[in-house]
Amino acid sequence: MPRQPDDAYQELVSHLRQTELLSSCSALLGWDEQTYMPPGGAEHRANQLSLLSGMVHERATAPQVGALLDELGGSDLLAFPDSPAAVNVREARRDYSRAVKLPRKLVEELTRVASLAQQQWVAARKRSDFSLFYPWLDKMVALKREVAGAIGYGAGVPYDALLDEFEPGLTSAEVVRLFTPLRDALVELLSAIQGASRRPDRSLITRNYPVDAQRRFSQEAARQIGFNFDDGRLDETAHPFCSGIGPGDTRLTTRYDAHHFSGAFFGTLHESGHGIYDQGLNREAFGLPMGAAVSLGIHESQSRLWENFVGRSLGFWRHFYPGAQAAFPEALGDVSLEAFHGAINVVEPSFIRVEADEATYNLHILLRFELEQALIAGNLAPADVQSAWNETFTRYFGLTPPDDAQGCLQDIHWSCGLVGYFPTYCLGNMYAAQFFVAAQNDLGDLGAQFARGEFAALKHWLNDRIHRRGKQYRAQDLVKVVTGQSLSHTALVQHLRDKYSAIYGL
Ligand code: CO
What we know:
Elements: H1 5-35, H2 42-60, H3 63-72, H4 84-101, H5 104-127, H6 134-151, H7 158-166, H8 172-194, H9 211-225, E1 232-236, E2 242-246, E3 249-254, H10 261-280, H11 296-310, H12 314-327, H13 329-332, H14 337-343, H15 360-377, H16 385-397, H17 423-443, H18 446-451, H19 456-465, H20 475-483, H21 490-504
Parallel strand pairs: 1-3
Antiparallel strand pairs: 2-3
Helix pairs in contact: 1-2, 1-3, 3-4, 5-6, 6-7, 8-15, 8-21, 9-10, 9-12, 10-11, 11-17, 15-16, 15-17, 17-21
The site of cobalt (II) ion has 4 residues, from α10 and α11.
């Protein structure tokens, strides 16, 4: 008797689940490496992670998966494209076909070069000398072009094959269409802000904020906005991240600086936003596309939404400010709520992306997007990245980076082969703005809710509309389903204009 499609589907499901269980072991080891592992454990940890990643790749590309997917083709199980089974099969097919197109030799070479290039990047950044890094950037760009060729792309744009890894279905032409009007609006807004007569006092943020008090205050804020500490933790690390290990276990990380309030506080809210997404995924669908995040851009929208649209709003601080003054009497005892709110929202062109404010941050991304497209298209030689960077930076910000460490060497991404990743940060801001408007339309005056310490309605709205849907929709379709409109720059620009008009008196 021939096998029923149901059996093939169940076999696929159990294969995918076990693969994800295995990767979640790597995730846990990776979290430990960044938080508690003693330095002496580095080599053994690298061996553990390398063995696991080999095993995961082997499972992901197993011929058995291809056979199951073939067997399921045309089955009644897939009759409704939005049904969980159809979504799981569709996304499994996509992952499988991408994975098998990459020859093992290329994957191994990428891993090897990434690890060496990363070390060279660290050394080059330390000496602020791009000439030490560009031979490795050259190798990496060549490999990424090879990857694009192996995966294939439409419209003659190899970059699209790389972008598709992080933001499935999106093309660079579409990103350009989204980013161009955003850039024009931001440049205009920035010049209005620079000419403003009213200026908040940024130095309030760099007063003395004892680390113990920051720890308690950040953790309490993460709890109040809805991060569940029974199913998660908050620890310290050098480069903060959030890692969803699996159902019931989401790890946040942050870092504290006694003379900078915003870094740890907004960093914690940011990672909590990622964590709330991970905690909101459907547990029953663990290991399956229906239980996974849509894309990097959508993931980033959740972190930016809590960090910026909630955490930097006046309503949020109407609720939290008395607690902040009690926690940091020396720094904030004599500071009004309005002055504090201005200080956490100062806009200032600066060289370093990760320290940028909500408005100029996007320009940092547009610059990287421009350059990496040119690199992959072959229109920019890796050796010329330094001059191209400085030139573009001057065009956007009216400033020239004083050295490479504050210029083209500041980000780790290209050294480890993350090309096509940067646009997802800016897309995240755009998605967040549009989601927030839709939430406000459904839920009423969110600012008033925040002022009363009420964050649950917004969290549940995000749980229902976004988190629990897993990969049911691709990002661009999800935006339409949730907000009724295609993604555009307008909600983000409106949000920034409204906020800065109030703060800077524009
Ligand atoms: Co993030």
